[in-house]
Amino acid sequence: MTGMAGRDLSLYRRRRATDRAMTAVMAGAALVAVVPLFLILFFLLREGLPALNLDLIREAPNRPGRPGGGVHNAIVGSGIMVGLALAIGVPIAVGCGVFLSEYGQNRLGMVIRFLVEVLAGIPSITVGLFIYGLIVLPQKEFTAFAGAVALAIILLPIVARITEEMVLLVPRSLREASLALGAPHWVMVVKVVLPTAVPGIITGIVLAMSRIAGEAAPLLFTALGNQFDSTNLFHAMDALPLRIFVYAVGPYDYWHQQAWAMSLILVGIILTVSLVVRALFGTRVTIRQ
Amino acid sequence: MAITLARSARTRALRNRLRPGDWVFNVLVTAAAIVVILTIAGLFYELIQRAWPAITKFGFGFIWNTTWDPPKQVFGAGAFVVGTLVTAAVALVAATAIGVLVALFLVEVAPPPVSRPVSYFVELLAAIPSVVYGLWGVFVLGPFIRDSLGPVMVDYLGWIPFFDGTPLITGLFSAMVILSIMILPTVMAVSRDVIGAVPRSQREGVLALGATRWEMIRMSVLPYARSGILGAAILGLARAVGETLAVTLVIGNRVAIPHTIFDPAYTMASVIANQFTEVENDMHRAALMEVALLLLGITFLINVAARLLVWRVTKGQRAVVFE
Fold first, then answer.
1. ipTM summary value
2. Which end of chain A is less enclosed by CB atoms within 10 A, N or C?
3. How many CB atoms lie within 10 A of CB A189?
4. Interface probe with B: pick from A126, A162, A179, A219, most Cβ of B within 10 Å
5. Which of A47, A95, A266 sits opposite B129 (nearest CB)?
6. Nearest to A96 among B36, B123, B138 (CB)
7. Which of residues 126-165 of B touch A (CB under 8 A)?
8. Mean of the per-residue pLDDT values for chain A?
9. What's the CA dihedral at A231, A233, A237, A238 to 10 degrees?
10. Model's pTM, two decimal places?
């Protein structure tokens, strides 16, 4: 009898030890998982802060090899192309999200819901080549417009999905009240449902915006990049991630420093947006590059 | 009576006046939705069309032939396919192992004051742009691998096949590490959601029989969440396969089948990023288009598989997750 009890006890001890060991492994994994973020942020600050100055924001790049100058062209270009991408993509994406929530309970809806998810997972570099074939080749010129269209395609599934989610969250009673007052379906959607869902949709747009602001792959073969200041939509245009890429592989030390500074600006903007959105809307939404 | 009639007549007239609105609205939002179908169809059509000269010239051999010679106009994507699959597979294994452990920690072990910030910090990794990972990889991770980690690995693990070689700033291993970090948030977040969706009754049943927490995880949580976790891993795989700029910056860009994990190599996405703006001839461009088509096809299939798995597990209750 005592032998049995002893074996049971040792078995229990072993099971408890395994349990504790695995708990430690899980906690260790969590520690390992958060380390890279802080390593990246640490080096962004250490390398980027010293290179931050007003010239970086105000001036266009110097002739390659001459230290100094800035990346005004890239900042302006990013602003223009992201803005244009929003102007092109958001109406379509919101329309698509409304379709999914209002008319999407059939086979077409299922197909489109599925394709929206698939589109979200397609490599952005292939989107760049698609727009290269569709717009750049026929026009025989790399243009900011083509870059904006490529970014709009990246944005489309993100905003479409969040719009559907947010519209579905609108309480039934609001819809019914509106219909009971005699409003046609579309008036209900435009005047009652969408305004109610607007904070959530705007959150989605802001998140999508910070996502496309960091994208370089779709711009490589569409907007190309441009070392001069340009606001012409039908010429090549620069963008922050493109310039970071060029400077990171380039030979000059001051390029590397400016690449760090640009990365710090970009990540600073993205993380600030993320924090603000999280503070305002809780944990339901996150940015994914 | 008369009033009711008048009112109903008025509402009918009003409704008739507004009904075209419903029709127009339906058409408009349906058109917006159709744009999604057109975009995906256009992607495939455009890439097939531009790649056609290479497709007809090199046939299926394009996928495994390893000669990539722009001046002689002989192209095969074999080296890039190998580079992509090797880096993505290693990143997948590393990120899934850590990601699932973190997800279990968040759902089963940690109290909210711990799990909330940890969850948030890991998810923030997903918000950092690819090119910033690349910059960090070239100037921080690369030198660390060349000077510290790499030599130690070669000394102690060099007897394992593929672990010898000369660690450099760029190479396969750098790309594997960067990719693991980059897909970790995807795997972690989706695993966390599917593990969170395991019904309480599953856990309580095993606990009632006297199981420890780890036994409960092993016997009820993991089996229940298995296909969802598989879906999470496949979603991560799709991201790793399509990842462009970070990999382009750290993989070393050499057209050859790598022999050790420290060799410089190429992936499909990085060869496109590097060579497309400097094509030497039309066949070169068509070949790069075919590489893109291959990449698109692979990620498309991976995504379809992953979505089906995740959908089946969460039964359509999707969390708000952005890739």
1. 0.91
2. N
3. 23
4. A126
5. A266
6. B36
7. 126-136, 138-140
8. 91
9. 70
10. 0.90
